């Protein structure tokens, strides 16, 4: 996935709809939180087995995919707005995690 290409695509989509003034870090973080909660809602009250099976068929697969996409799209907007390189941030965070949690 080319994150920069997606960020540019999203910026163009938002610009065409005159949404750019609303896409600030505060609003994007709040929207990201709401979308993450909607993803949680897909799994709320399911057993572990039911949760595992949710995306094996429709409509669960599409519902989860839609919410995952919403989370990612808002995160990409937030990264663009804050100037954070998500790929570099992920590489750095994985290195921190590897040092913090070495294999047994």
Automatic annotation (TrEMBL):
Family annotation (Pfam families): MazG-like
GO biological process: nucleoside triphosphate catabolic process
Annotated Gene3D superfamilies: MazG-like (1.10.287.1080)
GO MF, one example: nucleoside triphosphate diphosphatase activity
Signal peptide, first to last residue: none
Listed name of the protein: Nucleotide pyrophosphohydrolase
Organism (species): Inhella gelatinilytica
Lineage: Bacteria, Pseudomonadati, Pseudomonadota, Betaproteobacteria, Burkholderiales
